[in-house]
TrEMBL record:
InterPro entries named among the record's database cross-references: Asteroid, PIN-like_dom_sf, XPG_DNA_repair_N
Family as reported in the entry's similarity comment: Belongs to the asteroid family.
Key words, A-Z: Endonuclease, Hydrolase, Nuclease
Domain XPG N-terminal positions: 1-97
Lineage of producing organism: Eukaryota, Metazoa, Chordata, Craniata, Vertebrata
Name used for this protein in its record: Single-strand DNA endonuclease ASTE1 isoform X3
């Protein structure tokens, strides 16, 4: 998630909206996805030749050693697979296209930012080595992070502008002002701290006529985020006169941010503001738009998931995951990062997105070489299909043994239909897959080699 133009806007007003911190002696909830991207792209690593993993692992280790030196106890929360509703698919496809363009630029000697394929796995390996507590959520982690941080009353470390909207008790520290490489010592002591800045939601609301915090989720969806992009909202924005309340920098995006915040500040609550928004739209669209906006605003409410249970007991209940009736070992392996989000996407959506890498864009994607392995994985996962009656699984217009893959074709993306290998049911029941004998495991592996020869 992320709100267009918001992070650069608040950073342009850092003296008003941020508080300087000397961070030490605290728990901190870390957005794992944001962190490993930040460390990968801001550590002068080589991104062109498949992954400078040793150097990346060293950087990750030094980061956490800085936290330990300041008696900061990190809890890393990683995103899982796509939401069951698949409402971010358009955004994910747009990002995939952008990554392909950057990967092409890198492949011909230009600039760009594309994570090597195994960067997430290396990150997790370092977490395990250093005994850093971490969990992989079943889907997107933002709400779960917010809920856990408020439960423990500790700050969040991320680069996602959605954390400027969440009502966090101890605030949100942006990664780009988290000076972990420049630890300082408290005067007259031997205690270390990390200089950081903490976003103040109260300061933002005070700046805009003491606006009600509850209006900010509506601001987020009107401004535009990863979950909603309604063309009809341009009708509202073109008709309403947004009061700028002063000069803004960086063009139209900041005009929209500033104008919407000033406009919303006149309303007492979200219901009043939403009713006013709908007045600018054609009557035939109002109910549908209202439902979509209210649904999107829910993304900023606390989660039902209690990640503290995982860190205390080694397991937690996720309603979305439980509704699928997946085997317990699958849920545990996903939470521990032993299975990648690729697996949950295939299980829940019967669709996967193959990650972009730096390669010759005129040649077929290197993912083609592992197609037989993926087909066998899909065959194994098909045995869970009986549990997925209430998901979009059965709504997909695909053949019974087919999955869809979003892959690179030259410098664009294409959704391809991939047939799963039919694995013998008596050797591949997903609920008992971890218990099969070696001889049965070899039979499953032979499915890979057989399909690769056909």
């Amino acid at each position: 998630m992320g709100i267009r133009g918001l992070m650069s806007f608040v950073e342009d007003h850092s003296n008003e909206f941020f508080i300087d911190l000397k961070l030490r002696d605290t728990k901190i909830i870390i957005d794992g996805y944001a962190l490993f991207h930040r460390l990968c792209f801001n550590s002068n690593l080589e991104l062109r030749y498949g992954g400078d993993y040793d150097s990346f692992a060293d950087v990750v280790q030094k980061f956490f050693e800085s936290l330990f030196a300041c008696n900061i106890c990190p809890y890393v929360v990683l995103d899982g697979g796509c939401d069951i509703s698949d409402k971010k698919l358009t955004t994910l496809k747009d990002r995939a296209r952008e990554k392909i363009q950057m990967a092409h630029s890198l492949s011909v000697g230009g600039g760009g930012y594309v994570c090597p394929l195994l960067i997430r796995e290396v990150f997790i390996q370092v977490l395990i080595k250093l005994h850093v507590c971490f969990v992989q959520c079943f889907s997107e982690a933002d709400r779960d992070i917010m809920t856990l941080a408020n439960h423990w009353n500790c700050p969040v470390l991320s680069s996602d502008s959605d954390f400027c909207i969440f009502d966090l008790k101890s605030g949100f520290c942006p990664l780009n002002s988290f000076q972990w490489r420049n630890m300082n010592t408290l005067k007259g002591t031997r205690e270390h701290y990390i200089p950081a800045k903490c976003f103040s939601l109260d300061a933002l609301c005070h700046h805009f006529s003491r606006m009600n915090k509850a209006l900010l989720p509506l601001f987020a969806v009107l401004c535009g985020n990863d979950h909603i992009n309604l063309p009809i909202m341009e009708t509202f924005l073109s008709k309403v006169r947004l009061p700028l309340g002063g000069a803004s920098s960086k063009g139209r995006r900041h005009h929209r941010v500033l104008g919407l915040l000033n406009w919303l500040s006149q309303f007492a609550n979200p219901t009043e503001a939403l009713d006013n928004v709908l007045q600018y739209l054609p009557k035939k669209n109002r109910e549908n738009v209202k439902e979509l906006l209210c649904c999107s605003m829910e993304e900023y409410q606390p989660s039902q998931v209690k990640l503290q249970d995982f860190f205390q007991y080694g397991a937690y209940a996720c309603p979305d995951a439980l509704n699928l009736a997946l085997p317990e070992w699958v849920l545990v392996a996903l939470a521990k990062g032993q299975l990648s989000p690729f697996i949950s996407d295939a299980l829940v959506l019967r669709r996967t997105i193959l990650q972009t890498q730096v390669e010759n864009m005129q040649q077929p994607s290197a993912h083609r070489i592992s197609l037989p392995i993926r087909q066998t994985i899909y065959g194994l996962l098909l045995n869970a299909s009986a549990h997925l009656e209430n998901t979009s699984w059965n709504a997909l217009p695909l053949q019974r043994l087919a999955f869809s893959e979003v892959e690179r074709i030259h410098k664009n993306i294409k959704t391809s239909i991939v047939d799963a290998v039919e694995v013998p049911k008596d050797h591949s029941d997903l609920s008992t897959l971890t218990e099969i004998r070696k001889i049965c495991g070899r039979m499953v592996l032979r499915c890979c080699t057989k399909s690769s020869k056909e």
